[in-house]
């Protein structure tokens, strides 16, 4: 059965972007190594350290479907119709975009809430996992008990302000298990099971 895996590259102080939605040095680790890694889009090849490549190969290969918010969809233009990871994307939105130039892309716009989007994504993923992006969606999903694992690609930079990894999380404390740790180059990969 599909598990929901929340993941993002995060600053040391818990931000996934600055106040203007720029990632700055957060994504530098995707290009600071000698090992090419492709997550599924042939036009998006990263060059990472051997440790990060092994970590990405293990974690990304399990992802069947992604759930993202409308904000990320708009910022990336839906990666021009190619999922960043997995085979399909479910976009949580109040209103589907009009005139998006990739109507045949494997993107489904869900207008009846996050829980519905996750349920639909899990059904589509089958026995593979569902990736959930950080930000307000993650905070809402964690508070609702919909997240099974949290993956943090921790980068040694301090932003001070910006878009928080857990958004405006306002639920009861969420207890996580002990981390599994992979040290990359300018990034530390952490995986935490969410205790239910």
Automatic annotation (TrEMBL):
Name this protein carries in UniProt: Deaminase
Superkingdom of the source species: Bacteria
GO molecular function: 5-amino-6-(5-phosphoribosylamino)uracil reductase activity
GO biological processes: riboflavin biosynthetic process
UniProt-listed Pfam families: RibD_C (PF01872)
InterPro entries membership: DHFR-like_dom_sf, RibDG_C
Domain Bacterial bifunctional deaminase-reductase C-terminal: 4-168
